[in-house]
Amino acid sequence: MLDDITKAGAADPDPQRVHDAIVWRAYVAQHDAAALASLFRDAILRLTAPYYDAGQRAAWAAVAEDLDAFDARLARGVTLIAEHAGEPVAFGQLFPRDHVEMLYVAPGWTRRGLASALIARFEALAREAWASTLDTDASALARPVFERAGFSLVAREIVRRGSVSLPRFHLCKPLGAASFSG
């Protein structure tokens, strides 16, 4: 499943494409936790500033402070990582089989299709698991990415992180109909 995402190979004659190659792989418990926690915090603190204040971003990013708990959370379900030159540049999680639990792209790697590629992979996995819908609880930053992928707003929600309230958006995409897109 992971190998069918297009990537440049070692035999690729174009050195720029090899340099820019993204490698997709599954999460390795304990091994990947620290790097993904860093990406998670960096993405939240830097990319969501137009949508969330400093207190909201700090409360949200604090989820990754307990590395053992963060690792346990990443180890459940299916967590996929996009790497460049051995460093993670994006990751996401499908848990359970019909819910995109996490989706984060490193600053400097946005607007390159990584979030859309993760969503497409998770949709394919959900379809394989015979899920009738795929849903997520998206931030204000991620909401447009999911909407471009065919998700629709179900509800606006408020989640609490300690004493801080964060708005989010529950989005859903029906999977029951066959997809004939290329």
From TrEMBL:
It is an enzyme of class 2 (transferase). CDD domains: NAT_SF. Its EC number is 2.3.1.-. PROSITE patterns: GNAT. InterPro entries: Acyl_CoA_acyltransferase, GNAT_dom, N-acetyltrans/Recomb-assoc. Residues 38-176 form the N-acetyltransferase domain. Coiled coil: none annotated. One of its GO terms (molecular function) is acyltransferase activity, transferring groups other than amino-acyl groups. This is GNAT family N-acetyltransferase. It comes from Paraburkholderia tagetis. The lineage of its organism: Bacteria, Pseudomonadati, Pseudomonadota, Betaproteobacteria, Burkholderiales.
